[in-house]
Amino acid sequence: MTKYHLNLAHLYGDLLNTYSDVGNIIALRYYAKQMDADIAVKVVSIDEEFNPDEFDIALFGGGQDYEQLVVSKDLPNKKAGIEKFINDGKPLLAICGGYQLLGHYYVGANGEKIPGLGVLDHYTLSQDHNRFIGDITIKNEETGQEYHGFENHNGKTYLGKGERPLGKVVSGHGNNGEDGSEGAIYKNVYCSYFHGPILTRNGEIAKKILLAALHHKYPAADFSQAEALEIKPTF
Amino acid sequence: MSLKSSFAEFAGRSSYWFLHTFMHGGSSLPGKITLKLDPDILQSFAKKYDLVIVTGTNGKTLTTALSVRVLREKYSDVLTNPTGSNMKQGIVTTFITAPKPKQKGLAVLEVDEANVAIVTSYITPVAFVFTNIFRDQMDRYGEIYTTYEKILKGVRMAPKATIIANGDEQLFNTQNLPNPVIYYGFNHEHHDDLRAPANTDGLLCPKCQHILHYHLITYAGLGDYFCPHCGFKRPKLDYAVTKLGKLTPTSSTFELDGQEYRIEIGGLYNIYNALAAYALGRFLGVSQSQIKHAFESDERVFGRQEEINIDGKKTTLILVKNPVGLNQVLDMIETDPEPFSFVFLLNANYADGIDTSWIWDGDFEKLTQHDIKQYMTGGERYKDITTRLTMAGVDKIWKEPELASVLTKIKDLPTDHVYVLASYTAVLQLRKLLAEKGYIKGGMD
């Protein structure tokens, strides 16, 4: 039996799972085990209620245009819940489509403007006949950690108030190919265009997310061992 | 045939002969030369052959191979393209290097999803065979809906051609096409109400965008689907598997239209391929007993798996390229009653898909339920696959980035059975090594 138990909400996990987003759950469980914690996963999909108090971690993955459009129509029902979850300081990982949908809007493949949740202050435009595809390396300026991944996106995202990038692009394109930023951090929300299983190669981000969740749920517990956990590169 | 076409065909034929005689290979360059000399060369072949196009994400190669075998029971001239040459140039090479048919022949060609429209703009097929649409190397193909749209672009140029489609694939039931359609699928069990696992593609009802439910799921999102919200459901099947028999890694038995059949290849997904070949055979007038004979004739069908003896180790080499295919292969090797070792070779070149994240959708966790004596990883991206296996709970992995050492180490594996799953260029590289060392004959069509 593990000592700690976390509940993870996989937002629209049955619709936004196109880029092997499930890898993030596998990685979280793998590192959680090393912190003496286990994770129960629940998919929260369209027409279902999202109760923020039920969960300690949330995952918001990427999908195809068609599914994203369907999700965008359901999002207003979950807005209050997601907003509360974020403001409570609970960790949320948002990848690609999920990242875009947390912002004000994104422009779809056919040029239509699709509203997002507007809980984060970024917005996303689209490119004509171009995608940012390939291996990418970024550096987080606060920790000096390097993150490795693969990007494949048509969207160009511009960060807004209160957001700082997940990292500075070392090689690759990042948020928009212009300002050298990749992803976003806001409170304990981590956003990225790294597809999709970002945590499998970047265990340090998994560690941050897990620690945030554990500290939130067990404020009195001592997690110094988990904090000292050393994560070797897997790439 | 015009003088220009004849000359182009001659040039292509000569280069093919040269490449095959002296260079041991080359199925795309002769087509390239021919096309350069006469870009419309395909048109001249339309007069000589009736054409069937086999397309879809998984199963093209085996469906084509089985279809050819079935149709040869009735037709004397059946032309087909070699494994992997399913783009325009390879298809042209296939035509120019074939012996000239005495009467109008039949060509059954595997065609890459993005090349269907290119072929049908020159030749109007008599039939299309659709296997399935799954996400596959998304850095190249894009999303499943755009892949299907690419195929439809070709279909719209041939509104009279009969479509022989997998009825269990809901994407094939989303368009109103003027073409006659024949559906095949599975009807071997019935449940009141099933839901696909969350991590499945294409779960939405195309009519009302609610989550689809099922009476039967074969694998991934395939099965007898229905929408409890708007009534959208699987079309009536013309040909159906009504019972499953014994399934092993090397053979499957099943009942189809009341008759039992056996194919000499494992994997539930290959029964779909046999079913597609059966439906095409019936459409073109091949009898049930002829099809049974074709399926059960001894010769092994070369699909995307082959068995190689490496110093006494029965080694099965299987190409894997996308999550659905990978999961089907994992299901299949689980049916092996003997203990086995598991090798995974991962590259990330253009032909493999440069994004390796698809391995995370493979259900490697289930391997830990089995008594697998040894794991080995290799290839240029061996670290990615090692991490995947480690996080699945595997702790004893031999890591061999160089394929030459993988080959040497196979001899040291503790079991007689070895499964080697490999991405496309890793298969090519390993086969080349195996040929150099004399384990197999050289070349790869």
Automatic annotation (TrEMBL), chain A:
Binding site for substrate: 131
Protein encoded by which gene: gatD
CobB/CobQ-like glutamine amidotransferase domain: residues covered: 8-202
Alphabetic keyword roster: Cell shape, Cell wall biogenesis/degradation, Glutamine amidotransferase, Hydrolase, Ligase, Peptidoglycan synthesis
Pfam families, per the entry: GATase_3
Active-site residues (renumbered): 96, 195
Pathway: Cell wall biogenesis; peptidoglycan biosynthesis
Subunit structure: Forms a heterodimer with MurT.
Protein name as it appears in the record: Lipid II isoglutaminyl synthase (glutamine-hydrolyzing) subunit GatD
CDD domains: GATase1_CobQ (cd01750)
MF (Gene Ontology): carbon-nitrogen ligase activity on lipid II; glutaminase activity
Classification via InterPro entries: Class_I_gatase-like, CobQ_GATase1, GATase_3, Lipid_II_synth_GatD
Classification via PANTHER family: DETHIOBIOTIN SYNTHETASE, LIPID II ISOGLUTAMINYL SYNTHASE (GLUTAMINE-HYDROLYZING) SUBUNIT GATD
Family according to the record: Belongs to the CobB/CobQ family. GatD subfamily.
Reactions that this protein is recorded to catalyse: L-glutamine + H2O = L-glutamate + NH4(+); beta-D-GlcNAc-(1->4)-Mur2Ac(oyl-L-Ala-gamma-D-Glu-L-Lys-D-Ala-D-Ala)-di-trans,octa-cis-undecaprenyl diphosphate + L-glutamine + ATP + H2O = beta-D-GlcNAc-(1->4)-Mur2Ac(oyl-L-Ala-D-isoglutaminyl-L-Lys-D-Ala-D-Ala)-di-trans,octa-cis-undecaprenyl diphosphate + L-glutamate + ADP + phosphate + H(+)
EC number of this enzyme: 6.3.5.13, 3.5.1.2
PROSITE patterns in the record: GATASE_COBBQ (PS51274)
From TrEMBL, chain B:
UniProt GO BP: cell wall organization; peptidoglycan biosynthetic process; regulation of cell shape
EC number(s) stated in the UniProt entry for this protein: 6.3.5.13
Domain called Lipid II isoglutaminyl synthase (glutamine-hydrolyzing) subunit MurT C-terminal: residue spans: 319-426
Domain Mur ligase central: 54-194
Keywords, comma-separated and alphabetical: ATP-binding, Cell shape, Cell wall biogenesis/degradation, Ligase, Metal-binding, Nucleotide-binding, Peptidoglycan synthesis, Zinc
InterPro entries registered for this protein in UniProt: Lipid_II_synth_MurT (IPR043703), Mur-like_cat_sf (IPR036565), Mur_ligase_cen (IPR013221), MurT_C (IPR013564)
Active-site residues annotated for this sequence: 355
Associated pathway: Cell wall biogenesis; peptidoglycan biosynthesis
Listed Gene3D superfamilies: Mur-like, catalytic domain (3.40.1190.10)
Family: Belongs to the MurCDEF family. MurT subfamily.
Function: The lipid II isoglutaminyl synthase complex catalyzes the formation of alpha-D-isoglutamine in the cell wall lipid II stem peptide. The MurT subunit catalyzes the ATP-dependent amidation of D-glutamate residue of lipid II, converting it to an isoglutamine residue.
Subunit structure: Forms a heterodimer with GatD.
Protein name: Lipid II isoglutaminyl synthase (glutamine-hydrolyzing) subunit MurT
Native source species: Limosilactobacillus allomucosae
